[in-house]
Amino acid sequence: MTTPDNTSDASADHTGVAAQDWAQASADPQYRAALVDLLGALAYGELAAFERLAEDAKLAPTLADKAELAKMASAEFHHFEQLRDRLTEIGAEPTQAMEPFVAALDGFHKQTAPSDWLEGLVKAYVGDSIASDFYREVAARLDSDTRALVLAVLDDTGHASFAVEKVRAAIDADPRVGGRLALWARRLMGEALSQSQRVVADRDALSTMLVGGVADGFDLAEVGKMFSRITEAHTKRMAALGLAA
Prior knowledge:
Elements: H1 22-25, H2 29-56, H3 63-89, H4 94-98, H5 102-111, H6 117-139, H7 144-153, H8 159-173, H9 176-202, H10 204-211, H11 220-241
């Protein structure tokens, strides 16, 4: 689940690696290592999203809501399959590529386990969207083939509008709910950003992609701007939910 693509990829004037296809870019072993990390992190993120949505469906108040979440879980699993297959195509073992990110992502989900249906919806809308914003930013610096795949798997599964509708209706019915969910969303924001930064810091090839060397034109100042853009998008999503950022 995502927000609209802000990278304007179709109209961007790509240079360096971003102007190359996979066959050209993969000649650089450091770039290939970074790509395996990136696809591994994304693949496990999609697999974890599938598991979480399936689990959250148990909290659904109606059968229709349960069915809606099941449909979204299925879409997330399809995204996982696409990433798994791509890892295999480029000669990487999918399980090995995902393994370095299991502890961090599982830790995030354990620390942010929702206590009820509404918290689960806010987590999917806010938490997943922060991750998607991060990967969209990175995608702008990838080779054209990988960029197309990453943007495709970040397509909205329908959770965004579903979450907004349900959360706003709950707040309208009981305004006190808004304060609790706003605090929850702020916690999610902090945990999601910290988790993203830890993942990047722990993987040398991936961090190099962000701060320069592999990804042309992306320096430390740009990383700061990137996280500022992610924060701004979060504020807009909170407003859409009817919550104070």
